[in-house]
Specification:
With 267 residues, the chain is of the alpha/beta class. Helix content is 36%, strand content 31%. The chain has two domains: 119 residues, Response regulator (Rossmann fold, 3-Layer(aba) Sandwich), CATH 3.40.50.2300; 110 residues, Beta Barrel (OB fold (Dihydrolipoamide Acetyltransferase, E2P)). It is built from eight helices and 15 strands. The strands form four sheets. The chain has a five-stranded parallel sheet with strand order 2-1-3-4-5, with helices on both faces. A five-stranded antiparallel sheet has the order 10-9-8-12-11.
Length: 267
Amino acid sequence: MGYKALIVDDEREALNRLLLHLEKFSDLEIIETCANGKDALNSITTQRPHIVFMDIEMPELNGIEVVQRCTPPYPYFIFVTAYNTYAIAAFEQNAIDYILKPYIPERITTALQKAFQMLKKDRLADTAVQYQRLLHAFAENEVGDPERAYIRRIAVKSIGKTVFINVDHIVLIEGADQYVEVSTEKKRFTVRESMDKLEKTLDPEKFFRTHRSFIVNIEMVSAIENVDKHSSLVILKNGKKVKLANSRKSDFQSWMDGDFAKRRRKS
């Protein structure tokens, strides 16, 4: 499986030179080129490239500003510029490399290999999570029923590293477009996953979806507050209040009594 790359440079000659060299790598797909920071930010947000070759001095937004405005999941950035005065600022934005113009092919290759190595580590981390699900299934003698192989950890990828969250430490999961925000008692993480897909991987005896936008951990629930006859809230031990859909209220109360999850597994 290959990787997607975006090239951002407002100098056409430099962009073409970089493009020509990168086309030699069969496992790299150049999905787009951009000539200004605004288009680059839009492309990163919509197309989610794995690697971005980012010029720094550009119209609309400069390269540093583009990186600062990006949201997870982040690509790996390789800054390219004619001015070495930007080196410190580039690495403060977690760039994995910094290339000076005019381009030297060997430097481009070295930077790209760094990015490939980091992306492979990310994929190994994802694979480790899949293996964990399988081992858990064997331990519970549930290999024949994949719906019951519930995860114990969630992998959260950021620039240069992958963090694993123990699901028992999760307080709340909130939907956010194509991602979810996972909150523990101490931290908040952005995970590239849909609410629907994540819900299926969590043990229904421990986690309940109170609303299309919220999943709560049963151990973290303190009380139910009836706002009026049409709306209710679930109060968590940390004081956070989340919506409880009327259509789920009865099931939630049964689930809190320990019955709902058992009925759900039998159905």
